[in-house]
């Protein structure tokens, strides 16, 4: 990964000093610090400054973390920067408030160096994926808005991104819809057909070996012929996507919401974010190997 610029915002000098030492040992990062929300806002508003991720303390005097987060997400130039919230405790209400404000990554104090960099790398990787998906949107023609029905089959993570960007062009709010479609397709490939467990993915992400393991499993005889089947159907007031993999299913009920127990993990937020950002509803059939996502559209007219 290329050098990433990080803005750390914390009103406690000791925390800034510790984080500075952590990042100093990582040459792939350039660090800038701010000791409060207002100072951070001045830095962020400087057109000459660019940041790839913001590490933000939730509890600060004056402009606190949530207040600054609202400002960041309301500014078109800054809105796509991933924000990691640091907090003393992750209650369900705090997570909900953070999600609604636009924070999808969390660290509970005190945390270890490895946990910090696992979340930072996850946020940067997710941002890179989102940028790639959005660029792909422009590769497809606007006539896809007239697509009424379609059947598709994919095998790989790369094909999941290609199909997500294609189908999103047939949906309203393509730039947010593409993220949700991509999450469900990738979930079907990696957890469904390739049998990668939640715990295994967490460890692989921390060790930065996830892609290597995906490539390895994809070549194994037990997995290489498995496919994900996707159907698209437009009705008068909605679009329905049905995504079926050949895996053994999973306890999907545990992943529709971003829970406090998993919020600091480098993975496990995809389905919850897809449901929050992209779809009116996500339901699962059978053992959990079939996802049905609904997008509400304007009333159909001819």
TrEMBL record:
- At the top level, the lineage of the source is Bacteria
Keyword RNA-binding applies: no
Q: Does the keyword Phosphoprotein apply?
A: yes
Name a biological process GO annotation: phosphorelay signal transduction system
Tell me where in this chain the Response regulatory domain is found. Answer: 5-124
**Keywords from the named record:** Phosphoprotein
Post-translational modification 4-aspartylphosphate, affected residues: 57
Q: What is this protein called?
A: Response regulator receiver protein
Q: Where does this protein come from, organism-wise? A: Dechloromonas denitrificans
Lineage of producing organism: Bacteria, Pseudomonadati, Pseudomonadota, Betaproteobacteria, Rhodocyclales
